[in-house]
């Protein structure tokens, strides 16, 4: 476990857990937190991580940007503002492009930049009664710095997406499932167990297949069907080579011996592929 001033990082059994740790400020993201996260995401040994869980300390997930420290105080210092942006957007981009599967475990308040952070993760597990909001219009701006991208890409229906950006009306974690922002919502008391269950499903798979599944999804959604077929096949053979053809030599060989049922079970990994 590594403790920084603003976050806690734990790494065990191919799972990295990062806890935003400014509970007294509802885990809003200060320039120092951005700098720490930028460094952590840059230096993490991703070959040892299959799943990255991001959560918040105390009763909040993340109350967005630290409005005082990121905007109000440095407003007249353009270089300082630029440094804050470089670190902030740097680590957000690293989360979006992360080779590990990213899970936002949303345990409490989730506003603005916090919604962006959850929105760029692959999976969002939330407590049912958490409160979410695009609060930017409440203080006179629109959701910027990737937050519009995040809400527009997570809430597919225009009439729903724009409504929340225009009104700043909040919604709950449970309502977030219907909107498409949240993968699964459970009572707060069950959130840790649900996260562990999902992490278990993921870590039973190989690291490379998880990374490639994400990579192919992200590229293919922008493609026409026929180029998508070509791209998917090229990536499949790339995966096969990088995993020493484990899917045929180990998994399908094991299926032939009726050792597992691929419909409901994962094959037993022989090496960490
Ligand atoms: N920036 C700076 N300080 C913050 C932020 C923030 N985003 N969020 C909370 N805090 C501070 C509060 O000012 C307060 O500080 P204080 O103890 O010095 O007074 C402390 O955290 C605790 O917050 P409270 O407001 O006392 O907690 P409460 O439970 O009553 O309300 C809530 C929680 C609703 C999250 C409220 O703090 C709030 O509205 N925060 C701002 C949320 C927001 O709009 N974020 C910006 C999104 S837009 C963007 O990210 C660009």
Structure description:
- The protein is an alpha/beta fold and 273 residues long.
- The protein has two domains: 7-203, 2-enoyl-CoA Hydratase, Chain A, domain 1 (Alpha-Beta Complex), CATH 3.90.226.10; 207-256.
- Helix content is 46%, strand content 16%.
- It contains eleven helices and eleven strands.
- It has helices at 31-43, 67-72, 78-96, 113-119, 147-154, 158-167, 173-179, 191-203, 207-220, 225-242, 246-256; strands at residues 2-3, 7-12, 15-20, 51-56, 60-62, 101-106, 109-111, 123-127, 131-133, 171-172, 184-186.
- Strands 1-2-3-4-6-8-11 form a seven-stranded mixed β-sheet, sandwiched between helices.
- Helix 1 packs across helix 3 (78-96), helix 4 packs across helix 5 (147-154) and helix 9 runs antiparallel to helix 10 (225-242).
- The longest helix has 19 residues, at 78-96.
- It is globular.
- Acetyl coenzyme *A (ACO) is lined by residues 25-26, 28, 63-68, 109, 111-113, 135-136.
Give the tags.
273 residues; alpha/beta; 2-enoyl-CoA Hydratase, Chain A, domain 1; seven-stranded mixed beta sheet; globular
Care to give the gist of this entry?
With 273 residues, the protein is of the alpha/beta class.
Helix content: 40-55%
Average pLDDT for all residues: 97
Continuous helix count: 11
DSSP summary, beta strand count: 11
CATH level-4 homologous superfamily of the largest domain: 2-enoyl-CoA Hydratase, Chain A, domain 1
Low-confidence stretches: none
Strand order of the largest sheet: 1-2-3-4-6-8-11
CATH class of the largest domain: Alpha Beta
- CATH fold-type name of the largest domain: 2-enoyl-CoA Hydratase, Chain A, domain 1
The CATH architecture category of the largest domain equals: Alpha-Beta Complex
Strand content: 15-25%
Q: What count of structural domains?
A: 2
SSE ordering: EEEHEEHHEEHEEHHEHEHHHH
Structural class: alpha/beta
The rough form would be described as globular
